[in-house]
Amino acid sequence: MRRIVALPLLALIALGATVVGGGGLAAAPGRDFADHPAVGSWRVHRDPEISNYPLELMSLSADGTALDYGAYGTTGVGAWKPTGADAAIVSFTFVTDGPAYIVIRASLAFAPDGESFTGTFTTEAVFDPAHGGTSGEIGPGKVDGTRMAAEAPGTPVASFAEFFPNPAGTPEATPLP
Fold first, then answer.
1. How far is the C-alpha of 122 from the C-alpha of 107, rounded, in Å?
2. Among residues 89, 91, 85, 31, which one has the least CA distance to residue 62?
3. Residue 157: pLDDT band with limits 50, 70, 90
């Protein structure tokens, strides 16, 4: 009987959150940066003059949320805020598979057309958060980015089957009937 009452109650709470949030999940109070040029998805290059650093992807939301898919398969979660009409700061925390986590802090300046940015960043390894064990901030490094755009599919030059052909089987690899 309790389960029957709990389900409608949860549905009512979810509906209330949606209505209060304006049709979606409510953003942090007082944060609406929708008109800032930083909002969007970006292709990011750290130290662009060093060609062996792989591409990173970054997304900055109107509520101040920041996500970064790092060059080495790591994901950083963080926050950003405007520091001017065409400038912002952002910080990300990346969890490692060791005892530390990494904090990256950046200061970004956006081009007048809002399609690119340049900036500087520092990196800090936090080894022992309970006792203040960190590397301190290391840097600065340079960073630049270009806005990602939504694109419709173009004219294909090959089918998936042509581009990714199935390998021919061998007698050793062919399963028996």
1. 9
2. 31
3. very high
CATH number at residue 123: 2.40.128
What tokens were used for 8? 């409608």
Please state the domain count of the chain: 1
Q: Which residues contact 133 (CB under 8 A, 6 or more apart)?
A: 126, 127
> What pLDDT shows up at residue 171?
61
Query: What domain range is 93 assigned to?
Result: 33-147
Distance, in Å, from the CA atom of 103 to the CA atom of 61, rounded to the nearest integer, reads 19
14-69 pLDDT, tens per residue? 333 333 333 333 344 556 789 999 999 999 998 877 767 788 999 999 999 999 99
Domain membership of residue 84 (yes or no) is yes
The two three-digit tokens of residue 144, written as one number: 């630049």
Phi first, then psi, for residue 146 (nearest 5°) are -125, 140
